[in-house]
C-alpha cells in the first residue's frame, strides 16, 4: 500500500528584503548574544542514554523553531554526551592524542608534554594534519602524513626544505597552494617565534595560510585553549541541532557568524575544548553525514531540532534531516568555460618515454606546479587543429633540446590527436584539446635554454607536483602516441 509522507511545516529562510525576515533577524540576534535559561521544562525529554537524570532537555525548547542557540543546561548536556561518546567512538589517527576527557564526571587528564614535534597531539602534528585534511579524505591523508613526518618531522625541517621537495611530498593531495603556504608559515615560525608554533589564535592567524578554523583547531587541540573550530562537518551538525540557524540566519557571513557563536558557547571555559571540537567534527564525519545521517547512533538526538521535527512528523529522520543546512537557492556560483590547447612533447630514451614539463609561473591557484606547454584560447573547438598549436610549438622550440621544425612552419610535424580532457575547478569548466608530439633530443642538446623546463619519465610524472588536469592530459597523450 502506498504511504503518503506527512509534510512538516518548516519555516524557510526568506530573502533579505522580507520584513518577516527582519523581525526574525532581530530575534535571532538577541538569541545568539545572550544565553538564557530555557523556559519551564515541564515536558522534559529524557534520552535513554542520558548519563544523569538531572540532565534533561525541554521538548518546548526543541519545538521552538526560532532556536539559534543553546540554553546553559543544554550546553551542559551536549558537552557530557558528546565527550562520553567521543571517548568510545573516536578514530585513532597518527596525529591524534587519546581523549583527555574521562567518563563518570572525573576531571580531564592533564595535557601531555609534547617534546617531540611529530608526536600525536603536538602542535606541529596537529597543524600539518589539519592542512592536509582540508578537502581530502582522512584515509588518504594518513599515508601522506606518515611520509611527510618521516622526512619533515619538525617546523625547522619544513622551513629548510626546498619548496620543490615539499611539493613532491604533497604530490597527489591536490590544492598545492596549501603546501606552499605551510612552507611559508614554517619560515615565519622559525623567524618570528624561534621555531615554536604559537598557541594563541591571534598569533596563529598571522601565519601564512592559517585561517580561523585551523587556528582554532591547533589552539584547542594542541594547547587546550577554550576556542571553537568550525569546519564543514561542525556547521552541518550545528545546523541540524539548531534549525533556527538555517531558518533565521542568511547563508554566508551571517550564518557563519552564528555557527561560530554557538560553537564558542559550547567550548567556553572548558579545559578540554580540543576533545569537544574533535567530537563535533567526528559526529559530523561519521554519524551526521550530509546524506543518510545515522541518527540512531547519535548521542545528541534529544538536543536535535531536526531529529525532533522528524519524530513529530513521524517521518524517517535520516532523510528528513538532510534538508539542513538550508541552502540559498537564489545564489548560484558563476562557472565560466575555458578552452585550453595542451601539447605533450615527449622523447624516447632507451626503453622509456620522457615528457617535457614546464613550471607554471605566478602565485595563482596552480602557480609553481609543473604542466605541459599549453595556452588558453578563445576559439571554437573546431578551430583547434594543428594550426592552433603553432604558438605552443614556438614556445618549446629550442627549449631543453627540442627542435620542432624549420622557419617556424612546423608543417611536417606529426602531431598526434589525443582527444579532449575535461576538468572542473570550483568555478572554471575546462576543455583541454590535447596533442602529442614525439621529438628527437640528443644528450648534448638536453638542458639547452631549459630554465623552468624539465624532462620527466612517464612513471615519475605522478610523483612530481603536477595538477590533476595536467596528469589527465599526459595520460591521454601517451595512450594515443
Ligand atoms: S540526531 Fe541526527 S541530525 Fe541530529 S545531530 Fe545527530 S545525526 Fe545529526
TrEMBL record:
- Taxon lineage: Eukaryota, Rhodophyta, Florideophyceae, Rhodymeniophycidae, Gracilariales
| Composition bias type Low complexity, residue spans | 27-60
Cofactor info, note text: Binds 1 [4Fe-4S] cluster.
Pfam families recorded: HhH-GPD (PF00730), NUDIX_4 (PF14815)
State the name under which the record lists this protein: Adenine DNA glycosylase
Q: Could you tell me which CDD domains the record lists for this protein?
A: ENDO3c, NUDIX_DNA_Glycosylase_C-MutY
Q: Which reaction does it catalyse?
A: Hydrolyzes free adenine bases from 7,8-dihydro-8-oxoguanine:adenine mismatched double-stranded DNA, leaving an apurinic site
Q: Which UniProt keywords apply?
A: 4Fe-4S, DNA damage, DNA repair, Glycosidase, Hydrolase, Iron, Iron-sulfur, Metal-binding
**Protein source organism:** Gracilariopsis chorda
